[in-house]
Amino acid sequence: MLAQQFVFWCETATANERCAAVEMLADAVIHRKFLPSDLREAEAALVIAAEDPSPRVRRAIAEGIAEAANVSRQLVRILAQDVDDVALPLVLLSPMLTVEDLCELVRTGRLGLCVGVARRADLSATVAAEIVAAGEPTACLELARNRTATLEGAAMARLVEVAADAGELRFALLQRDDLPTGLRHALLSHLGSALCASPLVTNVVGLPRAARLREELNEQATASLIDTIKADEISAFVEQLRGASQLNAAVLVRAVCMGRVDLFAASLSRLSGLPDTRVRAIVADAREPAFVALAAAAGLPKTVVPLLLSAVRVWKDMAGDDRFDPADVASTVMDRVTVAFRKDAGGAQSDDLGRLLHRMSCEVQEGKARRRAERYLAA
User: DSSP string of 187-211?
Assistant: First the structure.
């Protein structure tokens, strides 16, 4: 009876009156202000109103039920597929929309709906992957900006691939806490390439210098990640560097001098093809014949092997020494390795290693000074 009366009343009511009526009706349904027998009639009346010719009326219903978890799914699905102005409140907020509902909305190819889904809080990995597969740039950007969205595996990798030529997307991904280290390195490399290829940089410094600058930026990107990489990301990070032809002697020197012996061992294992357990045992023993053979199997230049062995031995000697502040161990290792290197240095490759050690030593000392300042300020 209520639904029939509502239909008859709508025939003569203005759009403003119908908007006010559906707002009150939606509120009454959500807060259960009807008797059970009348509640079904009221919900039916809302379903009928969802076909109202005025988008203002339909929008009023959508806004009224957007966050409700106790309304008809039929009503929600009807309005969620309406014009964008009507659908967006539900697409953004409705808990009644399932994962499959959201995937269907993305598959429609409508930009407004895709963007709305991408902005939803706590978006599941399945829906996020559907958005990435659709390939709409604006929706992908909104997805990357959505810190609560779950991005996994191939979907994240695909976004990073697209971000090579999309500055805003690249920036949004770099802000995410869940970006794996290997993919973060790839993004930073893309950023360095984009900067060095820009007309401003090439005109100011010239093409040869821009190419060298790109290499330096890649080195800095790698350096910034070596010290913070998590243990469970090491394997993927090593593979990322190897795939980009950046798993070189400079990376290994930096890893071992910064105390990331786990990363150093994983890199040697990947380069040499030897089992991880065997490589870790050789590194832990730090005996020259086995270490030299391992370095040769990994294809490392002979000139860098004494430096790497020296660094491993310094870390081994200091591992159980409690006289050193843990925050200062890296700088102490750098000092000792640098002194040992200068005694044996010689040749052009040694000059390159010397410059690398000098840069690393400066970085470590700056980091040490910064940590001390932070401790003093916190005291």
Answer: HHHHHHHHHHHSHHHHHHH-HHHHH
Helix axes of 111-118 and 125-134: crossing angle, nearest 10 degrees = 150
Place of tokens 């798993």: 247
263, 238 contact by CB (below 8 A): yes
Q: Are 187 and 214 in contact (CB under 8 A)?
A: no
DSSP code for 248: S
- What gap in Å lies between CA 139 and CA 131, rounded to an integer? 7
Instruction: Based on the fold, state whether residues 346 and 287 are members of the same structural domain.
Output: yes
Asked if residue 97 is part of any domain, the answer here is no
Query: Alpha-carbon torsion 128, 129, 134, 136, what sign?
Result: positive
**For residues 70, 73, 77 and 80, what is the CA-based torsion angle, rounded to 10 degrees?**
10
- pLDDT tens-digit series, residues 20-50: 989 988 998 898 888 777 888 888 889 989 9
Domain span at residue 239 reads 180-245
Other C-beta atoms within 10 Å of 108: how many?
12
Task: Tell me the C-alpha distance between 171 and 188, whole Å.
Answer: 10
Domain boundary among 206, 224, 245: 245
C-alpha to C-alpha distances, 373 to 366, 368, 378, nearest whole angstrom: 11, 9, 9
Question: Are residues 319 and 332 located together in one domain of the fold?
Answer: yes
In terms of domains, do 235 and 259 share one?
no
Residues 295 and 366 in one domain: yes
- 207 & 309 share domain: no
Give the separation between CA 173 and CA 186, rounded to whole angstroms.
11
Exposure b/e, 197-234, CB count within 10 A at least 16 = b: eeeebbeeeeeeebeebbeebbbebbbebbbebeeebb
φ, ψ for residue 296 (rounded to 5)? -65, -40
The answer to whether residue 168 sits within a structural domain is no
Listed ranges 4-13, 105-114, 240-249; the one with the highest mean pLDDT: 105-114
pLDDT digits (tens, 9 = 90+) for 229-277: 888 889 888 988 888 788 888 888 888 877 788 899 999 999 999 999 9
- Where are any strands of DSSP class E within the chain? none
| Residue count of the chain | 379
- C-alpha 148: how far from chain center: 11
d(CA 128, CA 155): 7
